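Suppose you are handed a protein chain with no further information: no name, no annotation, nothing but its sequence. What can you learn? This example shows the usual starting point.
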Amino acid sequence: MRILLIEDDDDIAGRLATGLQPAGFVVERADNGEDGYELGAAGSFDAVILDLGLPNMEGLAVLRKWRAEGRDMPTLILTARGTWTEKVEGLNAGADDYITKPFHIPEVVARLRALIRRKSGVATPLLTHKAIALDTVAGKASVNGAPVELTGLELRMLSYFMHRIGRVISQSELMEHLYALEGSAESNTIEVYISRLRRKLGRDVITTVRGLGYRMD
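A reasonable first move is to predict its three-dimensional structure. Written in structure tokens, the prediction is:
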């Protein structure tokens, strides 16, 4: 899952990025409101972590501008401002959840996962589709109840598909959500991982839609 992190404190941003990556998140970072707004406006993110006290453009201004433009990515406000009036202001501006500093990484991970599930219409961390089950918290997959060993990237790819059953997903979208901006990936790399998932989960689990991408039906 691709996360946009907008935080001007480099230590906090580094801690978050380091803590979120093992949980399967690809983190893109911005250290000011203007750059964060532009990234969110131009890219596709599964969720956003947004600080309020940002240089150049306040966090609430960023959020209000996104919402006015119809951008509805789930947004978790992360800030030292902890009064109830400020929380209400953030939620009324379009935030989906609110967590105050200091924070614990496992709580941030859990809240992000809950926001992404809610956006996808999924109520629990256990995703199921036909014979496939994926526990997004434990990072375990099975077919007909039998465990299947998947690499971290294979788990992220499977999770992305299972949150979007029936939707065609292009190679470029998969690369964008599975790799960081500074990372490199070729289209044939995506094809390799699709092939591996088919081999491990079933040849018909992911359909190739010629000229468009892939779909899990």
